[in-house]
Amino acid sequence: MPGRMKSERYWSAVAAKREDFFIPLIWEEFFILTTGELYLFFDFKKF
Fold first, then answer.
1. How many domains does the chain have?
2. What pTM does this model have?
3. CA proximity to 11, closest of 25, 44, 47
4. Which keywords has UniProt assigned to this entry (predicted)?
5. Could you give the CA distance from residue 30 to residue 47 in angstroms, rounded to a whole number?
6. SS3 of 24, please?
7. Which of 4, 27, 31, 45 is least crowded, fewest Cβ atoms below 10 Å from its Cβ?
8. Domain residues for 23?
């Protein structure tokens, strides 16, 4: 699934730049949960 690969690359880049560009863990978890829900939504729409 290309979208998920792009998201994992994005979050690994965010983690690599954590010292320069800090994102609070709660905010980061919110975005990860939101993207996960979006993936589920689009997966269901395919069927």
1. 1
2. 0.25
3. 25
4. Membrane, Transmembrane, Transmembrane helix
5. 27
6. coil
7. 45
8. 1-46
Tokens matching residue 27:
């905010």
User: Which residues are CB-neighbours of 4 under 8 A, at least 6 positions away?
Assistant: 39
Residue with tokens 């954590």: 18
Tokens of 19: 């010292």
The structure tokens listed for 44 are 């269901």
- Alpha carbons 24 and 17: distance in angstroms, whole number: 13
Q: How far apart are CA 1 and CA 31, in angstroms?
A: 19
- d(Cα 23, Cα 34) in Å, to the nearest integer? 16
